[in-house]
Amino acid sequence: MKPFAIALHLIISTVVLAKKNLIIDTDLFSDVDDAGALLIATTSPNVNLLAVSINYPSSYSALAASAILAHYGKAHVPIGIPRPLTNTTFFDSWSFTLGEYTSKVAYHFSGGSLPWGRAEDAWDPVALYRKVLAEADDGSVTIVSIGFLDNLSVLLNSTADAHSPLPGRTLLARKLSELVIMGGSFPFTNSTGNSSTGSWNFAGSDPALAAHVVNDLTDRSSWPPRVRVVYVGDDVGARVLTGGPLISAAAAAPGSQLKDEDRDPVGMAYAWYGYYTPRPSWDPLAVVYAIHGLEGPEESGESGLFEFGNHCGYNRVDRRDGTNRWVWDEGVRNQFFLRLKVADERAAEVVDDLFMKGTFGTVGREGKQRQETGRCNLCGHEEL
Ligand SMILES: [Ca+2]
């Protein structure tokens, strides 16, 4: 091997090694910020996306995830979803202002491992978790939960199968590096005056399952201290409104100069869901933290994007209603809740910048071209 080739190989190896193994667990259905989170995860050069686990059983959720993954050149990423599947579509019966997007994304951007009509080809979510965790190095996986905790609850209770002889909880504890959970209010429900009811991600499906996962994490005999657990509370992204530039650039109205093939599925999702208005960034910010840590991406500036709101303790969820409360235990030092370190407007700029780089930058478009041609059009080399 020539010196240049050796140097190139080392550089590429370093880049590959630096990638973070990520699994996303999402309720891609009732809000569009999950789609924005997927955009960031699939187009980030820092991520090795192992799987997407859907925790809402609409077939359109799985098909939309497949369409988004395929658009950004990640058609190979496996998708899991619980059974039985339904053909439920989202209807906003609260404010009658929000629109449905998953079926439209699934149909108009059909592609990937689950093209239109093929949702039943998706993995069982627990089998998929067990497969990708078994194949990963110990302590190497970051899971970011941006929806309900139902799939993780079933995973914890799972037993030996063809993928691993380990019980689910043991397998998860061995493979995890970090578990990022979007949901809750900190230090306790309604402490920020936003709501006296349980957080959507804890109470919106089955609060007992959310409580099972969150409360199990305090079992010190099962969870090694090296596994970090970070909660991204509802307050973190609630006032960080994003998607506006993405909508304007990638989802211009019919009749504009934009070609149909250049439309972006996530941009269209934001347009359809919020009627061309930005949305809060609960899930995108959870994924940004999962990928980049407290510092955030380089666009965040020197001061960093996030900080922890505690130095010790753990979270507890009430299994009856999904409300939560932080327990200030000096003996627990691996669990944290996140706070924004910058103004909401600055955080929105960072997220919008990642959206735009993803949809128009070299990563998104290059990724798609590599999938189609097997070649990198920056350097002309065969895809590695
Ligand atoms: Ca979500």
How would you sum up this structure in a few lines?
With 384 residues, this protein is an alpha/beta fold. 39% of the residues lie in helices and 14% in strands.
Describe this structure in words.
Belongs to the IUNH family. GO terms for molecular function: hydrolase activity, hydrolyzing N-glycosyl compounds. Residues 22-292 form the Inosine/uridine-preferring nucleoside hydrolase domain. Residues 1-18 form the signal peptide. By secondary structure, the chain is α/β, with parallel strands linked by helices. The protein has one domain (21-373): Inosine-uridine Nucleoside N-ribohydrolase, Chain A (Alpha-Beta Complex), CATH 3.90.245. It is built from 15 helices and ten strands. It has helices at residues 3-18, 33-43, 59-71, 102-108, 125-135, 150-157, 168-175, 200-203, 207-216, 234-238, 244-250, 265-274, 282-292, 344-360, 362-373; strands at residues 20-26, 47-54, 79-80, 141-146, 176-182, 228-232, 306-308, 314-317, 324-327, 335-340. The strands form two sheets. Strands 3-2-1-4-5-6-10-7 form an eight-stranded mixed beta sheet, with helices on both faces. A two-stranded antiparallel sheet has the order 8-9. Helix 2 links the parallel strand 1 and strand 2. The model is unreliable at 12-16, 362-367 and 369-384 (pLDDT under 50). The protein binds calcium ion. Calcium ion binds at residues 26-27, 31, 34, 146-147, 283.
List the helices and strands and how they pair.
Blueprint: H1 3-18, E1 20-26, H2 33-43, E2 47-54, H3 59-71, E3 79-80, H4 102-108, H5 125-135, E4 141-146, H6 150-157, H7 168-175, E5 176-182, H8 200-203, H9 207-216, E6 228-232, H10 234-238, H11 244-250, H12 265-274, H13 282-292, E7 306-308, E8 314-317, E9 324-327, E10 335-340, H14 344-360, H15 362-373
Parallel strand pairs: 1-2, 1-4, 2-3, 4-5, 5-6, 6-10
Antiparallel strand pairs: 7-10, 8-9
The structure holds calcium ion.
